[in-house]
Design a protein that fits this description.
Number of domains: 1
Low-confidence stretches: none
CATH superfamily: Response regulator
Largest sheet: 5 strands, parallel
Oligomer: single chain
Strand order of the largest sheet: 2-1-3-4-5
Shape: globular
CATH class: Alpha Beta
Number of helices: 5
Structural class: alpha/beta
Number of strands: 5
Strand content: 15-25%
Distance between the termini: 39 Å
Radius of gyration: 15 Å
Order of helices and strands: EHEHEHEHEH
Length: 136
């Protein structure tokens, strides 16, 4: 089980995501904006964060940049969930440190699989398996 923070101002979508992730055994906290997401991350570091790009107060991109510039938060994997589909936005988010990018509308099952894959990669690296070795 992982602790996952979901930041999305679309209440229906956020609840759908919460329900799907809780169904597969995760603990999920939903917040409505990036500012609250950063506050909650300061209280308890999640295993993964799902961010909508377009939110009030602080956008998902502003939140992503703040997370990735903080030494204790920069390693938390982030999936952007957004209706912004153009290639420039996708590349901007990935270059800023997003681990994955999902466009709305999306399948809850697809999102859950992406989260599981992200958590598996995180565990793999944490166990020391992701350390690169020199080949001589």
């Amino acid at each position: 089980m992982a602790y996952i923070l979901v930041a999305d101002d679309d209440e229906i979508l956020a609840e759908m995501v919460r329900h799907r992730l809780e169904t597969v055994g995760h603990e999920v906290l939903v917040v409505e904006d990036g500012e609250e997401a950063l506050d909650r991350v300061g209280q308890r570091l999640p295993d993964a964060i799902l961010l909508d790009w377009m939110m009030p107060i602080r956008s998902g991109m502003e939140t992503l940049l703040a997370l990735k510039s903080h030494p204790t938060r920069c390693h938390v994997p982030v999936i952007m969930m957004t209706s912004r589909r153009n290639q420039f936005d996708v590349l901007t988010a990935l270059r800023a440190g997003a681990s994955d990018y999902v466009t709305k509308p999306f399948s809850p099952e697809d999102l859950a699989l992406r989260v599981e894959s992200l958590l598996d990669r995180k565990r793999f690296v944490a166990e020391g398996n992701g350390v690169r070795q020199r080949v001589h």
